[in-house]
Amino acid sequence: MKILFLSNVFPNSLQPRKGTFNAAMLQALGELHQTHVVSPVSWIETCATRMKQRARLDPNWLPYDAVNGMRADYPRFYYPPKILHQHYGQFLYWSIRPTLNKAIARFRPDVILSYWLHPDGEVAVRAAREHGIPAVVMTGGSDVLLLTRNRHRRRAIQGVLQQSDAVITVSQDIQRAVEQLQIHPEKIHTVYRGVDRSRFSPGDQQAARERLGLDPEGKIIVSVGRLEPVKGHAVLLEACAKISQQGTPFTCYVLGNGGLHSSLSQKVTEYGLDGSFQLQGSQPQSRLADWYRAADVIALPSLSEGVPNVLLEAISCGGRFVASHVGGIPEIADPDLDRLVAPDNPDELAEALTELLDSHAPRGERAFEPVTWQESALQLSQILSDCCTRYSSGLTQQQKSRSSYRRKNRKIKQPV
């Protein structure tokens, strides 16, 4: 089977850590099938990066860990910023149509798989219909849980879900949200994301701290995620201020980049937490496992989530977490090891973090263990294969119906 993957959420030369979970998924699928990636890159991201770093998009760039002959195209996506969001599907289609058509003609995929329902999913469904192949769309959470709050965007997303041949969600919670958009349950499949268990595995805490240059005796909180409002770092900062006021010694390391870096830095100084709340920037995958092992507790105070890769990786490294009770997080949390708190509640977050920082209970076995990327890819592969079979069978039935209709309505020549 040949799979063409369409999504802007994928690593590129300007943002090498963007959508690494999709790169890992494609890498695992590539062990089973031929794959090709078309990943649009925003013209705004390109301009911003060129201004800051004087770097240009390399269209021939591939993720550093790409294997199995994976190929990728990086067409530019042009659109008016902050307006006409419901029409972004049309703007994306106009922007990448030449690249996408060339890729389809050259690669001849059996199915188009897309991540992020709008605008990516809209273009995937449209291209699939034009070329007579099935389209499967994936949702990670925010596109269904947040974008649909806008009625115009909701209508566009609903159309994508209805027109696709199958829908894949990463949690039962998101599956329920998709069903509420009047999508038939039989069309929806839940597949949890995988984890590279060879990289993310339990290890010695002290050895991990030594490799990272951290205090071997201190209490450590680690939070991983891009610095954007939805990830709740402002709430985490307030919670840490409350913990500090209680006299509990700790250091919170925040790993990630984003638009809130400057404002968070200012508030850290205002709260007098320069030594206790440290913005470490984005970290390579090779170091993340040690951060999880080094932590006494992982914090994820997001306002909205699907099933976060951060928590799957943390669990695989033997970590405990405090996270918001949102999305699919309750599906993977262990009540004996983790704590769930209400989103946007710094008091409750501070209390839960303090409890786990002071806890000396041994870390036992979990009720939920993440699957490997290979196991996740096998589930995806079966869904894509079944979708192709149903699509082909449906075309055959349509052809038979058309042929039967033509026979019934053919004019019969009368004998002279």
TrEMBL record:
<dbReference type="InterPro" id="IPR028098">
    <property type="entry name" value="Glyco_trans_4-like_N"/>
</dbReference>
<dbReference type="InterPro" id="IPR001296">
    <property type="entry name" value="Glyco_trans_1"/>
</dbReference>
<dbReference type="Pfam" id="PF13439">
    <property type="entry name" value="Glyco_transf_4"/>
</dbReference>
<feature type="domain" description="Glycosyl transferase family 1">
    <location>
        <begin position="205"/>
        <end position="360"/>
    </location>
</feature>
<dbReference type="InterPro" id="IPR050194">
    <property type="entry name" value="Glycosyltransferase_grp1"/>
</dbReference>
<keyword id="KW-0328">Glycosyltransferase</keyword>
<protein>
    <submittedName>
        <fullName>Teichuronic acid biosynthesis glycosyltransferase TuaC</fullName>
        <ecNumber>2.4.-.-</ecNumber>
    </submittedName>
</protein>
<dbReference type="Pfam" id="PF00534">
    <property type="entry name" value="Glycos_transf_1"/>
</dbReference>
<dbReference type="GO" id="GO:0016757">
    <property type="term" value="F:glycosyltransferase activity"/>
</dbReference>
<feature type="domain" description="Glycosyltransferase subfamily 4-like N-terminal">
    <location>
        <begin position="57"/>
        <end position="199"/>
    </location>
</feature>
<keyword id="KW-0808">Transferase</keyword>
